[in-house]
Specification:
It contains six helices and eight strands, in the order E-E-E-E-E-E-H-H-E-H-E-H-H-H. The protein has 174 residues and is an alpha/beta fold. A six-stranded mixed β-sheet has the order 1-6-5-2-7-8. Strands 3-4 form a two-stranded antiparallel ribbon. Helix 1 runs parallel beside helix 3. The radius of gyration is 22 Å and the shape is extended.
């Protein structure tokens, strides 16, 4: 685990690997820490890292201690041009900084958004709509006795995984 806080290749020499599909994801390995800075003030340290993954094999190519698009841009620029041109697809977080870094450095690559983040955003929108409708209809927040509040988790579940009873409850609130 100590290796995760050091910049450097995790799997051999990344520049020698033929990468067709690249994944770029930010990940938090540890909790937030506080330390004294150079001026003596307490500074909050965010322990976010950017993980570069070869999507065909699932191998982690590199872990960089950063959270911004500049770190993605720097990592991509460090790769040889002919290796960058071989990348066809890139899956990223929903981040305009990551998208910009990929567009500038991987000109031929098609960009897609990580499915986890798409579903997360969709679920968040469903929750916002449910809360807004509850406020419009009841002029208050949802209560346990309200069907939409009582069965709110059903709105974010996959329909294929629901039982017949759960589907009936879902139709009741829709």
């Amino acid at each position: 685990m100590a290796r995760l806080n050091v910049e450097g290749p995790v799997v051999g020499d990344v520049d020698r690997m033929f990468i067709r599909r690249l994944g770029i994801d930010e990940h938090r390995f540890r909790k937030v820490r506080y330390a004294r800075g150079r001026t003596g003030r307490v500074v909050r340290i965010e322990l976010w890292s950017i993980v570069f993954t070869e999507l065909d094999t699932g191998k982690i190519l590199d872990i960089v201690d950063a959270r911004r698009g500049a770190a993605v841009k720097k990592w991509l620029k460090a790769r040889p041009r002919y290796r960058r041109q071989s990348v066809e697809h890139v899956a990223i977080d929903v981040s305009s900084e990551f998208r910009k870094a990929v567009r500038e450095n991987l000109l031929k690559a098609k960009i897609s958004v990580d499915h986890f983040h798409v579903i997360q955003r969709a679920n968040h929108m469903i929750i916002q709509v449910r809360r807004r409708r509850s406020d419009e209809v009841f002029e208050r927040r949802g209560r346990v006795t309200d069907p939409a509040h009582k069965y709110r988790k059903l709105l974010t579940c996959n329909l294929e995984n629901l039982s017949h009873l759960q589907i009936e409850r879902l139709q009741e609130i829709l």
